[in-house]
Amino acid sequence: MGLSLLMFSIARVMPGDPARIALGSRAPEWVVQKLREEMHLEDPFHVQYYYWFKGVLHGDFGTSLYTRRSVARDIKEFLPASLELALYAGIFIGIMGVILGVISGWYNNRWVDSVVRIISYMGIITPSFVFAIFFMLIFAYALKILPAISRISSDLILPPRITGIITFDALITGHFGVFFDALRHLLLPAISLALGPMSQEARLTRTTLVGNLGKDYVMTQRSYGTPERIIMFKYLLKPSLIPTISIYGLDFAAIIGNAFVVELIFNWPGLSRYGMNAILQKDLNAVVAVVMVYGVLFVVVNLIVDLAVRFLDPRIRLGEKRI
Amino acid sequence: MQRKLAKTKELSRRWESIQRNWYKFSRNRLSIVGLVLVCTIIFIAIFAPYISPHPESAGKFVNFSDVSDPPSLAHPFGTDRFGRDILTRTLFGYRYSLGMAAIVISIMAPIGVVLGLIAGYYRNTWVDTVIMRVTDVFVAVPALILALAVCAVLTPSILHAMFAISLVWWPWYVRMVYGTTCSLKNEFFIQAAEVTGASTAYILFKEILPNCAASILTKMSLDVGWVILIGSTLSFVGLGAQPPTPDLGTMVADASNYLPDLWWEAVFPAFAIMLVVAAFNLFGDGIDDMLGEEKRG
């Protein structure tokens, strides 16, 4: 709610007349005037906001100032591609981040640890668009083993649209060729998105693991002669993963933020590229809608993360019961 | 005599504390690497016109005899499609990145810190509610998206990009300072100051602020890297610095349209971005080692 107000104000304080922009400089004044009335641009700010927010609650984000298409329909069309990308990037972050972190913590201060730490350092200092361009150069142009742009090869037919997420649709309908092709196309953009957050996860996992290594309960198990492997996976991993999971929500923010750039580079037909184009063309209804959708998604993901942490962390779970 | 002695004592104590801090900072050798890199980059940024091989390439300049040359002795990083030397433009690019980071941080950090102090001190009053709810709204949107959206409504320029980044960054300072202030508020030394009739401003800035200084400084030094990252991302999509300004992000973007042919124009500025971010991260970690110790006791 507050978010919507913020976005709406940002969009409306912008200098310039949206109606004039939408119709172009050569449209006659009375047409512009009519559109202004249609868009409630003449009304005071809070009235405009009221109309707009009423629309949003009905799932109507207004029409795009450029294409005159319904923004809500555009979102429905483009969101699945972005979700697919974010999903695979998220899976990659979760799995690789934890694995690297555990390896690093396991071989604490040995050369394997140093290698992992250097890799994760690289991940943190490199902007995702740089990863995207490097990957394109190496894998798509130099080695020619992975495709550079778009979601599937142009000679394949899209599977029937069920969820809009191509890999899922292909699996459900049994088009395995399409599935693997789509996966190949996903690989580069998803990894360029994932490397930064993955590195953070790896670093954090390592830090907490190493920190927990010195705790009393680990010493106890060691003195019992429990094998290191069991100590690691049975006793150490679960408490050490709590911080890792709790920053997962922030990682999601990084993914969808950087998706704006990465989708543009890989020509990925997702919501972020749509939003980016809207930004570049000053298509404000679309910009506001995209930011709203992502803002809500972000909040939802953080809610899920909080619940997961609550489930994992007995201090929070039990602490609440006592109250 | 007495006074002189006190003065030398004071001086030697200060010297000692500098030495102690330097020891803490330099215990991690990587921090020294960071410090050296940071100093070098700042030096480059200041003296770019004097040390770069082709200073005229920094602005509007066309040299059709050397268009799109791959790296060579005359042009170690190659030239772009206007025949401008990439090495020169990269060195000048540091000017813009660093200047941007310095301005953004010196604007937003004080605002965030003051708001955080006030909200924390007036906890559970309407002041707290207003400040923190507004902050929450900003935090609820992923930073980069908000920055992009703000840039969208403004005309693209490096100034507006700085404004956008500042707008999305200050809430984090508010939250950090707010947390510390809330926990300090009930400490005895604050209560003592209140009882003796110290003014609110005195309590906020002289009693509470020094306790947050370590974390603020650490965050500021780490944030230089992040601001440069976000700034270069904004420039990359064309919402930050405009050509012919030699900005690192803009250069990578320009080259990305001509991949794989103009790879040198993308690769070297990209490495330059990574280097500066790495430098400030290592340096920030060092600052954290130096100041964090006191925090942890």
Tell me what the structure shows.
The complex is a heterodimer of chains A (323) and B (297). Chain A is mostly helical and 323 residues long. Chain A has 15 helices and no strands. Chain A has helices spanning 2-12, 18-23, 29-38, 45-57, 71-106, 111-125, 128-142, 166-173, 176-213, 216-224, 228-246, 248-265, 271-281, 284-312, 314-322. In chain A, helix 10 (216-224) runs antiparallel to helix 11 (228-246), helix 11 runs antiparallel to helix 14 and helix 12 crosses helix 13. The longest helix of chain A is centred in the middle third of the chain and has 38 residues, at 176-213. The radius of gyration of chain A is 24 Å and the shape is globular. Chain A starts with a helix and ends with a helix. Chain B is an all-alpha fold and 297 residues long. Helix content of chain B is 76%, strand content 0%. Chain B has helices at 2-26, 29-51, 86-121, 126-140, 143-153, 158-184, 188-195, 200-236, 248-256, 263-296. In chain B, helix 4 (126-140) crosses helix 6 (158-184). Chain B is globular, with a radius of gyration of 23 Å. The A-B interface holds A 2-3, 5-7, 10-11, 13-14, 121-122, 124-130, 133-134, 136-137, 141-142, 253-254, 256-258, 260-261, 264-265, 275-276, 278-280, 282, 284, 287-288, 291, 294-295, 298-299 and B 133-134, 136-138, 140-146, 148-154, 225, 229, 232-233, 236-239, 249, 252, 255-256, 259-260, 263, 266-267, 270, 273-274, 277-278, 281.
